[in-house]
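Case study.
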Amino acid sequence: MKKLIARTSVRDNIELSETPSYPIFKELYEKQKKAIWFPEELNIQQDALDYHSLSEDEKDLFDTAVGYFCSSELLVQNVLVNSFFPMLSDPHAKMSFSTQLFMENIHSDFFEIVLQSFDMDREKMYQVAFKDPILKKKQDLIVEEIDKISYGKIDPETLQGKKDVLRAILLNNIVMEGIFFYSSFAHFFALKDMGKMKNVVSGVELVLIDESLHLQNGIESILIMLEETPEIAEDTQYVNEIRDIILKGAYLEIEYVQTKFKNKIILGITGSELEKYLKYITDRRLEELGFSPEFHINENPLKFLQKEDVKKLINFFEVSSTEYTNY
Amino acid sequence: MKRTVIKRNGSEETFETQKIMNAIFEILSGMDVEDDYEIVFRIMKELDLKLPEKVKTEEIDQLLLKAIEQLIPQHPMYDKLSARQLMKQINKKIDRRLGDFSSYLDEGIRENLLIEDLLKFDIDLLSSSMDYSRDELFGYFGLTTLRDRYLLRDRNGETIEKPQWFFMRVAMGIGNSNEEVIKMYNKLSRLEYLHSTPTLFNSGTPMSQYSSCYVSVVDDSLDSIMDKAKETAFLAKHAGGVGTDVSRIRSTGSTIHSLNAQSSGVIPFIKMYDTLINSIQQGGRRRSSQVISIQPWHLDIEAFLDLRETTGNSYFRTPSLNTKLWMPDEMMSRIENGEPIYLFDPGECPELVDSFGDDFAKKYNERIEQAENGELHQFKKLEGQTFFKKYLFKLAKTGHPWLIFKDEHNRKNPCPQYSVINSSNLCTEISIPNRPDSTAVCTLASLNLSKHVKPDHSDFDWEKIGDSLKTMVLGLDNILDKNFYPSEDARKNTMDLRPLGIGVMGFAEALVDLNIAYDSEEAVILARKLGSFMREVCYEKSEEMAEERGAFAHYDDVAKNRTGYEYKPRRNAVLLAIAPTATISIISGTTSSIDSYFSNLYSRDTLSGKHIVINRQLIEELESKNLWNDRMANLIKQYNGSVQLIEELDGVIDKEVYKTAYEIHPRRQIDIAAAFQESIDQAVSKSIYIDEQMRSDMPDIYTYAWKKKLKSTYYCFVDKVIRGEKYTSSVNKRGSRSGFSGSAKNAKQAEAVGESANQTSAKKRGFGAAPSKPEAESNEELIVKARSKFGDDVVNEALAADGDSCPTDPMLRKICPSCE
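After joint prediction, the assembly is written out as follows.
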């Protein structure tokens, strides 16, 4: 049997089996299908007045988060298409990842509509992730590693090739989508918690649901690769490297929020709360991959996020609902 | 860490923990709590994370509030404390500029925010009648909502109204004498009933628009379409929800004689209303909204079902509108019997619009015969059940259109000689005859049943209910004469019929107090009894008032000129309507309308942001049985707010009583609504909650609603299947797979952990920025010391707690409130 990550050709995997080799990807495909939404469902224009009444710090936080997502969603798409798509050998895995790809399109579309609705500076927005020195470090971490495996530079049939692919999936689906994105989510949710930008944040709630499924795509791929090629985990130097990459991502993000929140309270949250939150999220990611936790934070300090975890009831005539399903 | 406070005048002083602690003890005073120290410490621990090195005086209060608020899901006590802290902030701000109630009135009148008329009352008497201790009745969510949107603000946006002043201002805008005002104030401020939002906003202000809903009818002419557009704009501007019936507008392909051309149908006009309502939505305290109603035999019905879709031709999509079907019995029977339904053009078959019941069935069947004989210009035949299924799919997918039953509304019409009932309002509880020149208006108030249970929880206090209802009838009838009517058509309808809408909220909360499960026959019987009691009391009061103030004009009119109505003269044509009470139930801190608890733990999105709502009654019961703790709180969170699957509660509490919305069969939800509907002269607005598993039963459920003679249904909530990753409780995604923790390098792994642990603690100091304890005092020594001081349990718990919680002294993190 072919492994999940392998050399493929256009003649391969053009047949779906009733008994999929990786049932989890069929399941994740179904889940993602049910989560599909469209930006038009949200009345983003409604938030225009709110946007203009944000304080300078709040606006900066919001703009940067939007700008960061604008380009990052496209980056994720590049990574998926240029890097691991050609190496995915299983048709259900392809369906699951191509649904992720489609969802990233929806997110791009959504953030593009946000950008237009508030007449934000497009050029600046798309540049934000490359102009801000710390954001640039974050983007570089992803881009440089993934460049290494793009355009047929590696051979997925070799152990080294597999290791490189795993590292790329890790950076894309775990570090970027599972840590960087989660950091920005908290900024958005803090806004809504204060009763601001409610319709945009309703959209972000939907993005969060999607991203948590994408995160699962990544975790599953990595765990499957480790099971199929146990040699990967036997290379202690490599394993330590992987752990270090996750921590590097986490510390970059911590550096970023500490710079943004330096001694300030924005939206009722502080830099130290966010730092602790990121450590909590990072521990979670480490444990999900079988690592021991780094920071031993077992409680999410941003307690207002509990509101994302429980059933929601909406005053329909006041806020766009995220509770309906398109399926 | 060393913290500095920046005072209002810019000077700096050292931050003193003791001051904050004192402030917390102050808001705790008088509360019945087991261990006030523990509460203070818990709050201080939350606050510690939030305080930056430099903090402004005015920020501290707000941060303290946020810190307490974070603890709300752990215990209702924190809800109380948050409310007290918020109340303190409101009072502090107002006290700085306004001495008392009378200076508030003066200020309000000077700024033209209040009407001068209010001064005709005995202000001293009213001032002394106010009871500020009733501020204690608010929950945090309720008080936040009140502060954000209801309490009067000056022209700079600063709140100038205390909650008790607010209730008094509302009462003064409604009562006609000191005595009436005091009576109403007492009921309102005890949250025994509340008026609807527009009344609470506008009572006693120059914008005296008290009504919630308007229901208009558009005729099949460009004149009427444009007139109603203008009327809608003004109704919407003044915070009313507008219901608009468009069934008369001819369908696509129908002939326009004056142009000798074909009509483009009703959909483009609906799109125009969509654009209109969206343009008025912004800026107010509440979004304006409109619902478009159509009879489902209209030839454009298939496009109508798609109006709330989000994809497709955007000229045929109406994201800002609500939609609903005005469904006749004849079509429901055809659907039930598997017969076809036929669609017609109202331009060609206008008689179908106005007729109802058997008369409609006869006319509809005549048209079907003509259609089959090829005598009609336009028609379409559809398979009934396929149509119904398609409709219900749209309902579950987009939330629209809602299903309302035309014939049941009209069978109960008390004034058929005035007009047929052409459609209902936005929230579907209104049922008032209306026509193109008479726009129905409804002014609403809702009785809070949870405040009318006897103290011993044995029964409702029926006498008190009766007293509240009578006050409500009086107040609402007063309002009709003080109200500002945005259009002549609206004034006409009110003056002719004087309709009132008295409803209820807190039904589910009261049931729990009475120890009755919502999902039980007993609840249905109680619903029936309540409905019939409400009708009896309100009609009696209205008949009594007819003697004093006269009956509604249309009653006298038909008695004089046509065949009079058989019932006794009364002041109001209709009096009862059960509204969804979305926001006023939040203010009252109770369950909305006649709905069950949505969940025992859930979050609610409103214009005031997101709030966690917990079932206080459940927690009180668990606490009385010593079962409430952080673990139980987490368990309930993991089960999405349900207690049904928590085994350790079997036989300990009556789980039936704590069933939540999706756990109660939709048939039971319908039974409860139907039991109220038997006596409610207008309609009951009932949302239906359907578990995802029951999606395929939707045709049965909605057919059942029709058979049980509901007049209206409202939103259809389908439990969402796909949720995001839980943010605050961990989920095991890896299962038993080892991932990177394979045995081969466990040793190395441990080493790495050891290293990073060292790094972390080095880092920790930077993060906490606190001077570290001298290294000499080892952890063991500290533990021994602490054990002797605080006992083993506390220390064990502290040791198990998370490592970052107290940066200064890991040993004392559970015990010491501050890091200084």
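Observations recorded in class. The mean pLDDT of chain A is 86. Residues 127 and 153 of chain A are 28 Å apart (CA to CA). We will return to this complex in the next lecture.
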